[in-house]
Amino acid sequence: MNRTNPFDLTGRTALVTGSSRGLGLAIAKGLGDAGARLLINGVNIERLDETASSLRGEGYDVDLAAFDVTDEASVIRAFADFDKKGIAVDILVNNAGIQYRKPMLELETENWQRVLDTNLTSAFLVGREAAKRMAARGYGKIINIGSLTSELARATVAPYTVAKGGIKMLTKAMAAEWAAHGIQANAIGPGYMLTDMNEALINDPKFDAWVKGRTPARRWGKPEELAGTAVFLASSTADYVNGQIIYVDGGMISVL
Ligand code: GCO
């Protein structure tokens, strides 16, 4: 019998922002494993080049998309460049993000703004440019990366919490306006993951013990554990899934 794989992404092009390492890289690999051509994005050209060549070495079909997701002119230029090259972004993963930990009473407005620009406004900017093209084609998948802090606050990460709460609502706003154009916008909410961004937390024995105690799975998540959910949301099996945030968190958000 000739069965087709409903999760197959062959022929699709996926742009993953902030994908030279961490969660973005793991998600990109997952989409690539499912057959997608990858557009790897970041601002550090050297690191991006290294990631692209190692991905190519592993057999992935990769192009570089070096632009700053916080800079509107660069985002617009990048999409104009895709248009010129005949590249259609079928799948967009808004993953780029930074963390800045400081108690709010000491927090500088500049750093508040920087975290919001990188973690939230970027998803609007890149999302808008991608969705203009997706709407014209009547097809597109947008996956925004949320967080446990899309729902719950944690002391010292206020701007991140506000940005990730915003990501949850931006995802719903995208669904509200773009679902009729054949675009599905959803989000993934990772739990505590083993990434460079979380290095200071992972290396803090008290925090490490707290994560393991607080998470029903009793461990940190591995970046590659997001891949399956990303593939699902990017695939045709999720064509009627809209505006959702799916937590991949070892059960943390569901328990006290
Ligand atoms: C923090 C971390 C966060 C978490 C993530 C959990 O300081 O709390 O850096 O990024 O890992 O938000 O979902």
UniProtKB/TrEMBL annotation:
Family: Belongs to the short-chain dehydrogenases/reductases (SDR) family.
Stretches assigned to coiled coil: none
Alphabetical list of InterPro entries matching this protein: NAD(P)-bd_dom_sf (IPR036291), Sc_DH/Rdtase_CS (IPR020904), SDR_fam (IPR002347)
Pfam families: adh_short_C2 (PF13561)
Protein name: SDR family oxidoreductase
Assigned keywords, A-Z: Oxidoreductase
Organism for this UniProt entry: Aquamicrobium zhengzhouense
